[in-house]
Design a protein that fits this description.
This protein has 286 residues and is α+β, with helices and mostly antiparallel strands. It is built from eleven helices and twelve strands. Helices cover 36% and strands 26% of the residues. Helix 1 packs across helix 6.
């Protein structure tokens, strides 16, 4: 992987510094596949542009992040969204091997489990092309309601990973609705010469932004509630996350939050959706 010039280049080094705490020549050579001279140039350029963000450590022979560097990102950390986006970009840059993979011995940041739902690459590529160019596709699909493979014509507009599963958000010609199609349940796909019947802008559930307010479960003890506040909300009482309407249910499932705190109790449920009445129309949307 070659480092891109300019702002992208500086952003990549800043990501490494933020999440690994240091920059050194060997790490850049291994990660980006550049020569020793180029990796030294990159660090020098970064230091010149950010002179108070790094400090040389002779023991590790690395430039370590200074307290000032982390103070610069403190506001984003408290907001949460910027920190989440930054971590996602860091993991995309360095990869995230699972604990039993061949790469595990080379990394200290690991995924506990392998991905059980890696999509077929050809199916992924065809659906992505259809979404980019607003084309319809013909698929062979199976579902819990119709477990026998059957033909569908759909118009995908987005490929989404929700939890551990990938799905295509698409308009179904047969049902005349936007639905989610799990990529693992698609056995065949064919790009059609037909334009998409409906596009992203027609998908009301996708285009609607829904605020989801998450709190500690009211049945937790005061001490347990403080633990949840510390872990998820930076010490505040709750956190509001904006989701697309079509993805609200996936978000709730992923964080394992109760929507009925009277029956969904700790320790199985430690979080609760506080504004359930407001978001109820979006739960179980297809």
């Amino acid at each position: 992987m070659a480092i891109k010039p300019g702002m992208q280049q500086r952003a990549q080094l800043a990501l490494l510094l933020r999440w690994e705490g240091l920059l050194n020549n060997k790490r850049l050579r291994d990660l980006f596949g550049v020569a020793i001279v180029r990796s030294s140039e990159l660090i020098r350029e970064f230091r010149e542009q950010n002179p108070r963000c790094v400090k040389w450590d002779a023991v590790s022979r690395s430039f370590h992040a200074t307290p000032e560097f982390y103070r610069r990102g403190q506001e984003g950390e408290h907001r949460g969204d910027e920190a989440t986006d930054s971590l996602s970009r860091y993991l995309a840059l360095v990869g995230l091997p699972h604990a039993m993979s061949d790469d595990a011995d080379q990394s200290v940041v690991l995924s506990a489990f392998p991905d059980l739902s890696t999509p077929n690459s050809k199916i992924f590529a065809v659906l992505s092309e259809a979404a980019r160019h607003q084309r319809a596709v013909q698929i062979m699909y199976r579902s819990m309601g119709e477990p026998t493979p059957h033909e569908r014509v759909i118009s995908p507009h987005s490929i989404v990973r929700a939890g551990r599963r990938w799905h295509a958000r698409a308009f179904c010609s047969k049902n005349q609705q936007f639905r989610d199609y799990a990529l693992g349940r698609i056995s065949e796909v064919k790009l059609l010469n037909e334009a998409a019947e409906k596009t992203r802008g027609d998908d009301k559930a996708w285009m609607t932004e829904v605020p989801v307010r998450v709190m500690a479960h009211p049945k937790l003890s005061p001490a347990q509630e403080q633990v949840i506040r510390f872990e998820y909300f930076n010490g505040t009482a709750a956190r509001v996350t904006t989701c697309r309407g079509a993805l609200v249910n996936y978000f709730i499932q992923d964080i394992r939050a109760a929507i009925d705190p009277k029956t969904q109790l700790p320790p199985d449920f430690q979080l609760v959706i506080e504004n359930i009445k407001e978001i109820k129309p979006w739960i179980f949307q297809k």
